[in-house]
Design goal:
Length: 222
């Protein structure tokens, strides 16, 4: 079941300080994973003004939906809003449900092209996620659906409040954490989805919203 969100969400950006060290925006590309795949963080991928404008415009224009997930046989509301934007006929689903497909806006298409230029990969859809405040989150999972193919490249752009992002090795339990800055890009590739899981944990006392754009290539469009 997909419910449309009745109100547009006011998005404001204010920096968020947590216990993790903040990377300078000009620190170039940082590899987060010690082995078994790659998670490259590019802190200053978007210029600050561009990131501010995108946060405002995408927050207001993306058709946010509240979806439900099936967990242990029970339907529960996903603790964030999201929307699937993709090329015509590119269907994506998880938790047993296909998402409604929305067309590209000029803003999202432009960011897609920037991600393609940076990664050398092609993307035919983006899952946009809105974490309204620190209570919204995403639990441990991997982007390992068969429609993404083997060793997918996922380009994930962060806008708005800084949130912690964790990666945990499936076999050793080793965990890597970082902050995802406003305007940053995280590129997960190689064995990162097979060997690791990732999550965006709850963040206590955070009132500001974070918007995330995860560009993907669906290899088996229906
Ligand atoms: O919000 C994020 O940075 C992660 C989102 C994510 O992992 C997903 O949608 O699969």
């Amino acid at each position: 079941m997909i419910h449309c969100c009745p109100q547009p969400h006011p998005i404001r950006y204010r920096g968020f300080v947590s216990g993790l060290p903040r990377l300078p925006l000009d620190s170039g590309t940082v590899e987060l994973l010690p082995r078994d795949g790659s998670a490259l963080l590019v802190p200053g991928f978007l210029a600050p003004d561009d990131a501010d404008d995108l946060l405002d415009r995408c927050g207001a224009s993306i058709p946010w939906e509240s979806t439900s997930l099936v967990m242990f046989g029970r339907e529960v509301a996903e603790p964030r809003l999201s929307a699937w934007i993709a090329d015509i006929g590119v269907v994506y689903g998880y938790s047993g449900r296909d998402r409604r497909v929305h067309p590209w806006s000029p803003d999202l298409d432009r960011v897609r092209r920037l991600c393609e230029a940076r990664t050398g990969s092609s993307f035919n859809g983006v899952l946009a996620n809105l974490y309204r405040d620190g209570r919204d989150h995403m639990g441990w999972h991997a982007d390992d659906e068969s429609c993404l193919g083997v060793d997918p490249v996922i380009a994930s752009v962060s806008l708005g409040a800084e949130r912690r992002f964790d990666l945990r090795h499936r076999q050793t339990g080793e965990t890597v954490s970082c902050l995802l800055p406003h305007g940053s890009l995280l590129v997960m590739s190689g064995r990162s989805q097979i060997a690791w899981k990732h999550r965006l944990p709850r963040s206590a006392r955070l009132d500001n919203a974070r918007l995330n754009l995860t560009f993907r290539l669906i290899r088996s469009p229906r």
